[in-house]
Design brief:
Elements: H1 2-11, H2 25-40, E1 44-54, E2 59-60, E3 66-69, E4 78-79, E5 96-100, E6 108-118, H3 124-132, H4 139-151, E7 156-157, E8 159-160, E9 177-178, H5 180-183, H6 186-197, H7 206-209, E10 218-222, H8 226-240, E11 249-253, E12 256-258, H9 273-279, H10 282-291, E13 299-301, H11 303-333, H12 345-366, H13 370-391, H14 393-399, H15 401-422, H16 427-436, H17 475-484
Parallel strand pairs: 10-11, 12-13
Antiparallel strand pairs: 1-2, 1-6, 3-4, 3-5, 6-7, 8-9
Helix pairs in contact: 2-6, 2-8, 3-4, 3-8, 4-8, 11-13, 11-15, 12-13, 13-15, 14-15, 15-16
The structure holds zinc ion.
Length: about 500
């Protein structure tokens, strides 16, 4: 699964300094360290609880390993913690005709067993103070954290009767492992340590994680994970009484829905990663998902919106600008950037507009406001098309070739600027533009300088006209997709 995940991320153009895993030796060791610190500080308690035991399997069954009929809706394969069909929260003993998920055996009985509990309640005030000190978190992140804190925190069981996981360093717990939400967040530290252990002379994981005053730490997640990152994990850190780095910013998202409902693998409703890349290049998905990020509310995926937005922004705005500029230049002046003399006030104004929009674009990135990031990018691209339409070099070339050449030189420079700006959003398409312009590695990040240079791509540079960067999604195709993924 680790390999599978890594390759999906790679295909979508996500890059990692290091893609670690929670099953690493480093994470096992760090998890034990956290546990021992919490135990030494009095935040771990051992308690007996009553739990389902399978005689055939000779083991205790975690809630999810007990299967039976849901007492609420009758669904036959409900799990002991929750019914997948009607979403009722259940207790394993509620299930009708319960059986073991391991062997299918119905020889079950309720026995007493010991588990470890984390005293979340004893750290509630400290967690609240920490949450309240982060006024810049989004409303979604803060409201979920405060809801949990206001409802009151209880001790939480941190051990499970499973074979797979991080083992518990305590006598009598040989058959148990830590609850996944105990060791998973420690995996952030563990992965950094894996990374640093590969080159211990050049980096030290502690520079990021211990006594690190100059680290800005941003976490991204869907809203169901917010309680673990605003309450549970911070409490674990605070309870160690050690100076671990805690999150500076927590960016959370609402749900992406499929036509207002749930995506469902079992009902084949919605589009999933395996099909997504076979249908459209990664850039289409990246662009659409960022433009429609469920930031303030849930967002709905529809094929109509997908087709409309991509046709308009990628095909009509960016792709069209690139192609019509380069094609016209080749037809009129050949495949080298023409010179054409000095720019006018119009170009000076264009430069100022680009600078203003680029500043807004950067600002929205820093603020992690992804819908607004895309709005700014769209506005930037539009500046190019508005400029080209106003200057109409296809007409100008008949009356003033020198000025037409200058206009096309300006437009080609805009292409470079647009592709560099768009790279974090649509990296594969930007790379194709970089290749068409024969940009050197160092040229591909020029826009990050404070002062925007509109004419850095010099006359005489050779380029090629790329194949259209994006393809139009026609109504017929859109309707086919709608039908294919409707789950009907
Ligand atoms: Zn049910």
């Amino acid at each position: 699964m680790h390999q599978k995940q890594a390759s999906i991320y790679q295909e979508f153009g996500l890059s990692f300094d290091y893609f670690g895993r929670t099953s690493s030796l480093q994470n096992h060791e760090l998890t034990k360290h956290f546990f021992e610190r919490l135990a030494a500080n009095g935040y771990i308690e051992e308690r007996p609880i009553r739990q389902v035991y399978s005689l055939k399997d000779e083991r205790f069954l975690p809630d999810r390993y007990v299967i039976g009929a849901c007492p609420k809706c009758g669904y036959e394969a409900a799990r002991g913690d929750q019914c997948e069909n009607c979403t009722s929260v259940l207790d394993p003993v509620d299930l009708l005709a319960p059986r073991s998920a391991v062997s299918g055996s119905t020889e079950l009985e309720v026995r007493t067993t010991k588990h470890l509990f984390f005293r979340l309640d004893a750290l509630a005030n400290e967690v609240r103070t920490w949450v309240e000190s982060h006024e810049k978190w989004s409303r979604l992140t803060r409201s979920i954290a405060m809801k949990w804190l206001n409802e009151g925190l209880n001790e939480r069981c941190i051990t499970r009767d499973l074979q797979w996981g991080v083992s518990v360093p305590r006598d009598g717990f040989e058959e148990k492992v830590f609850y996944v939400w105990f060791d998973a967040p420690i995996g952030y530290v563990g992965a950094t340590k894996e990374y640093s252990d590969q080159a211990p002379d050049s980096r030290d994981w502690k520079d990021w994680w211990l006594n690190a005053s100059d680290v800005t730490y941003t976490q991204f997640m869907a809203k169901d994970n917010v309680p673990f990152h605003t309450v549970f994990f911070p409490a674990m850190i605070l309870g160690t009484r050690e100076p671990w780095t805690m999150a500076t910013q927590i960016k959370s998202f609402n749900w992406l829905t499929y036509y207002g409902g749930k995506f469902s693998t079992s009902q084949k409703r919605g589009i999933f990663l395996d099909d997504a890349l076979e249908l459209f290049d990664a850039d289409y998905w990246r662009y659409f998902l960022l433009a429609n990020s469920p930031e303030t509310d849930d967002a709905s995926f529809t094929w109509e919106l997908f087709a409309t937005m991509l046709n308009k922004d990628l095909v009509g705005n960016f792709g069209n600008f690139v192609n019509r500029t380069l094609k016209l230049t080749v037809a009129q002046f050949g495949d080298r950037v023409p010179d054409g003399g000095s720019p006018s006030e119009l170009e000076e104004k264009l430069k100022e507009d680009c600078q203003r929009v680029l500043a807004a674009y950067r600002h929205q990135f820093v603020n992690l406001e992804f819908r607004k990031v895309i709005q700014a990018l769209r506005e930037l691209w539009s500046l190019g098309n508005v400029y080209l339409d106003r200057r109409a070099p296809w007409n100008l070339v008949k009356t003033n070739r020198t000025e037409a050449a200058m206009v096309l030189r300006t437009a080609i420079n805009l292409i470079k600027c647009f592709a560099i700006a768009a790279e974090p959003i649509i990296p594969f398409s930007s790379a194709r533009v970089f290749d068409a312009l024969n940009l050197a590695a160092g040229e591909r990040r020029e826009w990050l300088k404070d002062e925007f240079d509109l004419y850095s791509y010099q006359p005489g540079r050779q380029f090629t006209v790329p194949e259209p960067l994006f393809r139009r999604i026609e109504k017929v195709e859109m309707e086919e997709l709608q039908l294919r993924f409707s789950g009907r």
